[in-house]
Amino acid sequence: MSLIGWVQICLTLALVLAAAMPLGAYMAKVFSGGQTFIAPVLRPLEHGFYRVAGVDPDKEQGWLAYALSVLAFSLVGFASLYAILRLQAYLPWNPQGFDGVAPDLAFNTAVSFVTNTNWQAYGGETTMSHFSQMAGLAVHNFLSAAAGLAMAMAVTRAFARSGSATLGNFWVDLTRATLYVLLPLSILVALAFVALGVPQTLDGSADATTLEGARQVIALGPIASQEAIKQLGTNGGGFLNANSTHPFENPNALSNALSIFSMLVVSTALPITFGRMVGARRQGFALLAAMALLLVAGVAIVYAAETSGNPLLSALGVDPSMGNMEGKEVRFGQAMTALFVAVTTGLSCGAVNAMHASLTPLGGLVPLMLIQLGEVLPGGVGSGLYGMIVFAVLAVFVAGLMVGRTPEFLGKKIEAREMKLAMLAVLILPLVILGFSSVAAMLPAALASLANAGPHGLTEILYAYSSAAGNNGSAFAGLSANTPWFNTTLGLSMALGRFAYVVPVLAIAGSIAAKTRAPVSAGTFPTDTPLFVGLLVGIILILGGLQFFPALALGPIVEHVLMLAGQTF
Question: CB neighbours (10 Å) of residue 184?
Fold first, then answer.
């Protein structure tokens, strides 16, 4: 590690925080229906959408109606995207002449983009037409992120209101998230990417002559526009197969820093939005502090592990002074690669600027754990906030048991119903990840997709199902996932990780909203102090450790011990 490396990391995070403060205040106004500087331009368009869709923006929904709206919207989105992928050979803007996507891959991809996972079991430049990329994938990059924002606002209103039977209107929240937040930010970031050298064109490819005199076909397309929402919406699905390691998606150090900034800024702003909307700004900063502590710890571990190098490679005569550079881009460096690795998995983004399978076992353990901890550090757009609130509910309940106080969070009593629903939500991830992984580890058809045996092979399986169920989308390269088994089971994992989680969370929100907000008293446990931040961090680590540590011990942990001993499996 180096001082200049830490300066780069700290400067990037400081810029994110500086931008998140005004953005958080802006989003609080947007979702509260307040006046913003862009409202005079967008308000007529917003109400035009309501008239066309037959939506009454003044009519709010209870938690069940809100949840059913989310499910219905997602189901229609899945069906339309599946149809586009299957029929892309007959649709416009297909300069490459691609055929329709195979049924199992179309199922996997449609579920992936509707759930904000953006897992890709295909090469974008060899599989998807420009129409599929723009009208299919890029559209759902906006809509799946907007749906996550909408659900986060519903949960926020539950704590902001007292004795309320409603959480807002999903269709209004979805429209405002797209029009007022994601679209303006995406235009600005896309223009910045173009200025930094990212292509934006409808041409299918360009011909080049190599130094040897051979002809090379270089894939092109509207990359900058999709790159912007890919990062801002914590989607992560790349236009090109190599994702953010490709020089067209991420050409230089500045574009790399912009990618990290774009991934973090909306999710970092949401706790600030939460604090403003519930009337307790310190509470928003407490949630943000818990997120930041674990994320920075993850960055430090990856940075230390990768700069320490791999003794197995050093024994072969590889210069260890640069650390472990296998699978990394020299133009980004170790520090910003470590930051990208931790950010993309602490978020539910899944973009990669290095191959995670080439990290040292300890370096690879960190992104895997950051996903398994619930994608709350700071998590996906919207999903990170409501996931962290679930952990906060668990934390105040545990605190109440320890000190004999009534569990309360922001004046709302946490009782048996909320705890049952919270545990139902947090048990979804281990059930899906460990359940499917255990079957895949024994199934010959699944094992045939592994590039490695032993602990590393098990890590490839664990990472795939963790990434899918956590709606992350990054891959531990080495697993050939484009098979009927993995396309189907990973698709199911994505759907369960999104919808089996959000339904109980919205049910919690409905129950909380209906409760009367109690005033602060001498018996109230403060939830905006360093003590609570420490308790919240502990709850997250203990739940993650208890659920996944045995599996991790058989994968990256034992592999790291073998590496230090100079052995391979």
Answer: 13
Q: In sequence order, what DSSP letters do the residues of 9-22 get, joined into one string?
A: HHHHHHHHHHHHHH
What is the secondary structure of 390-433 as a DSSP string? Answer: HHHHHHHHHHHHHHT---EETTEE--HHHHHHHHHHHTHHHHHH
Which residues, other chains included, contact 270 with Cβ-Cβ below 8 Å and sequence gap of 6+?
A: 24, 27, 149, 152, 378, 381, 382, 384, 385
Q: At what angle do helices 103-114 and 484-513 cross, to 10 degrees?
A: 20
The total of other beta-carbon atoms located within 10 Å of residue 530's CB is 9
Helix (H, G, I), strand (E, B) or coil at 169: coil
Report, as an integer, the average pLDDT of 11-30. Answer: 97
DSSP of 51-72: HHHT--TT--B-HHHHHHHHHH
Q: How many CB atoms lie within 10 A of CB 89?
A: 12
Q: Which of 124, 120, 116, 121 is nearest to 77 (CA)?
A: 116
pLDDT digits (tens, 9 = 90+) for 126-166: 899 989 999 999 999 999 999 999 999 999 999 999 999 99
Q: Tens digit of pLDDT for each residue in 446-476?
A: 999 998 888 999 999 999 999 999 999 898 8
Q: How far apart are CA 31 and CA 25, in angstroms?
A: 10
Contact between 111 and 101 under an 8 Å Cβ cutoff? The reply is no
Q: Residue 300 burial by CB count (10 A; 0-12/13-18/19+): exposed, middle or buried?
A: middle
pLDDT band at 569 (very low <50, low <70, confident <90, very high): low
State the SS3 of 526-540. CCCCHHHHHHHHHHH
Rounded to an integer, what distance in angstroms lies between the CA atom of residue 261 and that of residue 17?
Answer: 10
Q: Which residues in 539-552 are b (16+ Cβ under 10 Å) and which e?
A: bbeebbeebbeebb
Coil, strand or helix at 317? coil
Tens digit of each residue's pLDDT (9 = 90 or more) over 60-83 = 999 999 999 999 999 999 999 999
Q: What is the mean pLDDT of the chain?
A: 92
Alpha carbon distance 493, 16 (integer Å): 31
Pairing type for strands 215-219 and 408-409 reads: unpaired
Task: List, in order, residues 6 or more apart from 137 with CB less than 8 Å away.
Answer: 81, 109, 113, 118, 128, 226, 237
**Both tokens assigned to 137:** 């994938």
Query: How far apart are alpha carbons 172 and 58 in whole angstroms?
Result: 9
